[in-house]
Amino acid sequence: MSKAIKNQADILAKLNIKQLNEMQLQAQAAIHSNSEVILLSPTGTGKTLAFLLPIIAELDPKLEEIQVLILVPSRELAIQINQVIREMGTGFKTNAVYGGKSGSKDKMELKHRPAILVGTPGRVADHLRRESFNTAYLKTLVLDEFDKSLEVGFETEMREITNKLGDLKKLILTSATQGVEIPSFVGLQNPKTVNFLSEKSSKLEVKAVVSPDKDKLETLLHSLQFIGNEPGIIFCNYKDTIQRVSDYLNENGVSHGCFYGGMEQIDRERALLKFRNGSHQIIIATDLAARGIDIPEINFIIHYQLPHRLEEFTHRNGRTARMHSKGVAYLLHWAKEDLPEYVGDLEKITLNQKHELKASDWRTLYISGGRKDKISKGDIAGLFFKKGNIAKEDLGIIELKEDCSFVAVKSKTALPLIKKLNNQFIKKRKVRISMA
């Protein structure tokens, strides 16, 4: 293992973070001084960094075995946490295992033991049955968004995993939900709770938009025109509804992405990637996007369909007005529709203004080289500036994957850049560049 960097100041500098928030400071202190910690904090407040910093500080750099297991409810959260650990630049190896990814690829990666393993309960349980790795040195277990893992049906696997990790020294549970029941199989004895769920001074506004017709598609379009060109999420309950909404928005020239459980993993990842870098300002999603995924600050969400439970209503709304910023949750409902009690009394608004919905100024380019080729963000930026001859403001977010990369560029430069840079060399590797 390369020289491990545990200095917190160095890690925060790499992440471009000036200082930790109060929740992160309290969580850090609690994890260092307690063997069992429950961390409760709203979505978007930095829980991942809150538990990673103290965990990494306590890792043994001389031990080449898995020391920490982080269980998460979704593939996207596994990928996100894995990426954060890499970006911390500590020198500790990390891997993510999850459904939809090749099991043989997992096995090959796990031969070179990571210090931290991140995964979904289903895939981790499968590896434990196959004895893919040694658990003797695994001393820390994190159940991140544990209630969501239970909700999506991972209880059997979580029970199996916790039963096989009998010699744990530290157990950390996180959630963005107040008052959730902790299952007995977790085996908590005397946990320290760090609760910041009541600390969020939300500036969220919830407003109702009444549709004159039972079919709300036209009202949805008018709502988007009323809001204007802002980043936001349209929430639906079913993938069939998402497809119908998507088809309608396509017919009306509204650029967007889609995100739901039935999609291929690569399509899910690219939908979120394009949303993060601004290539799409709107994403249509199920409650899979309500928490536990890496998306930027957004200005609004629309409930095209209301969720069945208050908890999901709260998590959806928590995607906007995060970290003390403003945001609006719009609730679309038919005039004769009965609303659930949890909604309460809402301000009804009239869609009395109309903005032209413009296509995004950004496009996403695909590059056929990534981390395994020792390619860095700086290498990619250098190629685009020197040989692509673009201005600094024409280059957006760069995301590195294991075997490829994605770059946001201004729309006007996308095709010229492909012509100039396709089959150029980065780090002695000839790369293909195309529209993602």
- The rough form would be described as globular
Mean pLDDT: 91
The chain-level structural class is: alpha/beta
**Tally of alpha and pi helices:** 14
Total domains, how many?
A: 3
Instruction: Identify the strand order in the major beta sheet.
Output: 3-4-2-5-6-1-7
As residue ranges, the low-confidence spans are none
Biggest pleated sheet: 7 strands, parallel
CATH topology title of the largest domain: Rossmann fold
How would the blueprint of this fold be written?
Blueprint: H1 8-14, H2 22-33, E1 36-40, H3 47-57, E2 68-71, H4 75-88, E3 94-97, H5 103-110, E4 116-119, H6 121-129, E5 140-143, H7 146-151, H8 155-164, E6 170-175, E7 192-195, E8 203-211, H9 217-227, E9 232-235, H10 239-251, E10 257-259, H11 265-276, E11 282-285, E12 300-303, H12 310-317, E13 326-334, E14 347-348, E15 362-367, H13 377-386, E16 395-400, E17 405-410, H14 411-421, E18 424-426, E19 429-431, E20 433-435
Could you walk me through the main structural features you see in this protein, from its secondary elements to its overall organization?
- It is a single chain.
- It is built from 14 helices and 20 strands.
- The chain has helices at residues 8-14, 22-33, 47-57, 75-88, 103-110, 121-129, 146-151, 155-164, 217-227, 239-251, 265-276, 310-317, 377-386, 411-421, and strands spanning 36-40, 68-71, 94-97, 116-119, 140-143, 170-175, 192-195, 203-211, 232-235, 257-259, 282-285, 300-303, 326-334, 347-348, 362-367, 395-400, 405-410, 424-426, 429-431, 433-435.
Task: List the defining traits of the structure above.
single chain, 436 residues, alpha/beta, Rossmann fold, Alpha-Beta Plaits, seven-stranded parallel beta sheet, 20 strands, 21% strand
